[in-house]
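Memo to structure team: turn this sequence into structure tokens by end of day. - J.P.
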Amino acid sequence: MPRNNQPRDVFAEEHLARNIGTLRRLRRWSNSGLAQRMKDVGCALDQSAIHKIEKGSPRRRITVDELVALSRVFDKSLDQLVADPKILEEEAALAYADEWCRLLAQHLLASQEHERERQELEQRLSGQVTSPELYDQVRTYISGLTKGQPTVAFLVQPKELHSGQEQ
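Reply from structure team:
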């Protein structure tokens, strides 16, 4: 007589499959990249097996050895690998937010440095260029550069501008 199995309330296998896919994508690894890393830690796993784990219907089951190797490859505990994927997604979102803040801080520091150097160069320019016309031309050129629109005429005719003469 066949057994009547009750539906399960534990979704660890489903969570694991989703978390593997999420962790792999977060690291920008291909299936073959993950397969190579699994091989490197002593547990060869074909890239097609990874696809079947993540997207198969039914999903490919994972052995205990593969689970331990995945833990090593992703540097996650077994609990973290089988936890609700929402937890991993929240951690990833926080990591992205941290990275965004770090990049923003770098950008702000670079902008401040750029402004300091621009002011320094402007002071040097005003101290060395006595011709108001040449000073205005250089300022127009610099303004074009800061707006991403280099003034080609200035680049092509530096001698004329330097001497203040036209040909």
